[in-house]
Amino acid sequence: MGRADNAHRQRWRRPSSARQGDIVTAVVSHVRWPCPDEPGVPARYFWAMAVDTAHQHRGHGRRLLTAVAALARASGELVMWADARESAVGFYVACGARVSGEPYVDDGSGLIVRHVVFTIS
Ligand SMILES: CC(C)(COP(=O)(O)OP(=O)(O)OC[C@H]1O[C@@H](n2cnc3c(N)ncnc32)[C@H](O)[C@@H]1OP(=O)(O)O)[C@@H](O)C(=O)NCCC(=O)NCCS
C-alpha cells in the first residue's frame, strides 16, 4: 500500500498551519493512513508541506511537524510518514525522520520522492 489516494486525501484531509500574527507561514495536510514500511502500525500520512519562502529557515517547518506529531500521538498513531522530494529529505532527517526504501517517481507530482518515516514517541 502506498500513499493515500486522491479521493481519500480530499475526503479526510486534515489541514494544519503555522501562523505569525495574521499571516499563515506554513501549511501541511495529513490523514490517518498506513505506512508501507511499518505494516500493522497505526500511522499518519502527511503531504503538501510548505513554508512561505519569506519565512523559511526559521523553524516553522519543524514546529509544524511537531504539531502534527502531537495530533497523531493523541490519535494513538505510532508513526508519521511522507513521500519527500529529494530537496526536502535533509529537512525531514534534521527533524528526526529516517529515510526508507529507494527513490521512485511519484505518480501524482511526477517528482522523484523517498519515504521519510518518523517514530512518534
Ligand atoms: C522544506 C521546508 C518545508 C522546510 O521548512 P523550514 O521552515 O524552512 O525548515 P526549519 O527552519 O524548520 O528547519 C528545520 C531543520 O531542517 C534543516 N533544513 C531546512 N530545510 C532543509 C533542506 N532543504 N535540506 C536540509 N536541511 C534543511 C534546517 O537547517 C533545520 O536544521 P537544524 O534545526 O538542525 O538547524 C521548506 O523549505 C519548504 O517549504 N520548501 C519548499 C516546499 C517543499 O519542499 N516542501 C516539502 C515537500 S516534500
UniProtKB/TrEMBL annotation:
Residue stretches making up the N-acetyltransferase domain: 1-121
Protein name, UniProt field: N-acetyltransferase domain-containing protein
Family annotation (InterPro entries): Acyl_CoA_acyltransferase, GNAT_dom
Signal sequence residues: none
CDD domains referenced in this protein's UniProt entry, alphabetically: NAT_SF
Gene3D superfamilies in UniProt: 3.40.630.30
GO molecular function per UniProt: acyltransferase activity, transferring groups other than amino-acyl groups
